[in-house]
Amino acid sequence: MPVPQECATVSTDLLAFLGFAFAASATPGPNNIMTLATAARHGLRATLPLILGVALGFGFMLTVIGTGLAQPLASHAGLHTALRWAGAAWMLLLAWQIARAGSPAAAESPRVGAPVGFWGACAFQWVNPKAWILAVATTATYTLPGENLTAQVLVLAGLFMLVTLPSLGAWALLGAGSSQWLASPRRMRAFNIAMGLLLAASVVPAVLE
Fold first, then answer.
1. Are 122 and 53 in contact (CB under 8 A)?
2. Given 49, 77, 147, 164, which residue has the most CB atoms within 10 angstroms?
3. Is the pTM of this model over 0.85?
4. How far apart are the first and last CA of the chain?
5. Region for residue 114 given its phi and psi (left: phi exceeds 0; alpha: psi -120 to 50; beta: otherwise)
6. Are 137 and 70 in contact (CB under 8 A)?
């Protein structure tokens, strides 16, 4: 029995979007680097709220942008640029703090040594230039004119969240697996510097888009 052309098109578009979502969430970026660093310093369990915060926070952000902010941002390039640079500046500050951090045992205060929690990860999406670009690109590329925009965006946000959870989970496992090797203060210091530099470097492509 032949498959209707509409169903074939939807299936193809869905597969294309899932590939895009996986590539966007699994490749190195601010969220991945933050997850890796947190798991290495604090363990897998302490990183779970961060992972959930990233997934749900970006899903919410995509919903808000897709249903209301995408058009104003597209119409006002200056606003989009200002938000992107403000987010980049905040992330560079975070990269500096990560690079300067010592080992967990040597943390001078609970605030310095505390892992990023659920709400912190949610809020982080709004200053993450890569997240802004992904949200706008997803809305522009994978929604269809003339259809129910809200329903489309909700489906895309839900799928993105489902893909993000295992992607960040893999990065967390990688970080947690390296924690024993990082027991040496010298190695942890070098790791923190490397993570800070990677986070700073990950800002550059997003800003130059």
1. yes
2. 164
3. no
4. 45
5. beta
6. no
- 159: tokens are 């799928």
**pLDDT tens-place values along the chain, 209 residues long:** 444 444 444 456 778 788 888 877 877 788 988 898 899 888 899 999 999 999 999 999 999 988 876 566 555 666 656 666 766 676 677 678 767 765 544 433 333 457 889 999 999 999 888 888 788 778 777 777 667 778 888 999 999 999 999 999 989 998 888 877 766 777 777 777 777 777 677 666 655 65
CB atoms within 10 A of CB 5: 8
Query: Contact at 8 Å (CB) between 116 and 34?
Result: yes
Can you tell me which residue has the tokens 């892992």? Answer: 115
- What the block records as the tokens of 46 is 């302490």
Q: Which amino acid is at 162?
A: L
Element housing 204 (H / E)? helix 185-208
- Dihedral, CA of residue 114, residue 127, residue 15 and residue 209, to nearest 10: -130
Cβ-Cβ contacts under 8 Å for 205 (sequence gap 6 or more): 130
Buried b (16+ CB within 10 A) or exposed e, 64-89: ebbbebbeebeeeeeebeebbeebbe
